[in-house]
Design goal:
Layout (H helix, E strand, L loop, with lengths): L2 H11 L1 H17 L8 H11 L9 H17 L10 H12 L2 H22 L11 H86 L4 H29 L16 H10 L3 E7 L8 H21 L5 E8 L3 E8 L5 H8 L5 H11 L4 E6 L5 E8 L4
Parallel strand pairs: 1-2
Antiparallel strand pairs: 2-3, 3-5, 4-5
Length: about 400
Amino acid sequence: MDAHHRLAHWLRENHGTVDLLVAAAAFVLLALPWAFTDRPMEFIVSAALTIPLAWRRSRTVAAASTVAVVSVGQLLINQPPVPAQVSVLAMVYALAAYAPRWASLGGLGVAGFGMVAGVAQFGLNEYQTGLAALPLYALYIFFAVAVVLLCWAFGDLARNRRLTLQALQDRAHRLEIERQQERELAAADERSHIAREMHDIVAHSLSVMIAQADGARYASAADPAVAASTLGTIAETGRGSLREMRRLLGVLRNDDDAPVRPLPTLAEVPALIETVRRAGLEVALTHSGTPRRPLPTGAELTVYRVVQESLTNVLKHAGPRASAHVSLAWTAKGLEVTVDDDGRGAASDSAAVEGGGTGQGIRGMAERLKLYDGTVETGPLAGGGFRVRALIPYTEA
């Protein structure tokens, strides 16, 4: 930082010290010399005019009032002006720069009146009288009032600059607060997104692995070959889940070496269903309709996660010998996804609660779909079983 910038910064940050130094300098230069003369009144008046300069910014109205009272008193007792009278101009500037508007305009009026009265009382000598002196009076008054107006104008400019800087600082502070809030909201949204991804990956994979392990345990007694095949499926599912977790955690670590394979899309729904079938759940898949235009990649991921979560819930809560039906129907509004099962129906809700579920999966579905103006409806079927129906419109395509 340059020297003049450092000086300007110090002056802005220490205005109380600056005003005290200015008042002390004015007292030493304009008042103290009178103490060494035989004119004590001039010393008293000069001291009363210079000392209030120490409070010209902190107590502007009070300091200016003191100077005004002293100056008016000089006129009343016919005391001639002194060099310290320059403090009147300093107070006019201070009132315009730091005082309320009423005090600024009032000080301007009092100073202007005092200048006119002072010129009329002390401006001309005893030889300048009569009509011939009127032009000189007018000239003196013009210059006196012009100086007062000039000081007031400079003070008003300083006031406007100060208010502008303050407004900019307030705006910058508000913007910083808004940026911090946006960062916090983005972090919260990212945490929610990560929680949904981890839930979808872990819950689905573990449900498939548990179902496979239970099936292998019962089938191994009759046919050991089935157990070996099932264990292979479990290992494959675990490795796939591990890859997904590594990819997700690699993104969190900002790791350039982390695998970043494409996220699941509609084209991978059949592979997902095949994985669930290997876990022992009978699942049928039907397609109908033709899309008017393709969905965004994020919307296709949402459809995949809805199907994945729905089938995971069937595995966990529908009970033994349940089956499911997945329907992907392209309508005039968008893609309608329906997952029905013939399991325990309404009892699945209580089963989820008894099993320690928190509804994170259904809540995650709703949050994902909301990003694409989609909706989800869940509930038991009349004849038994449970239904999940979701709609993703074309609006975000």
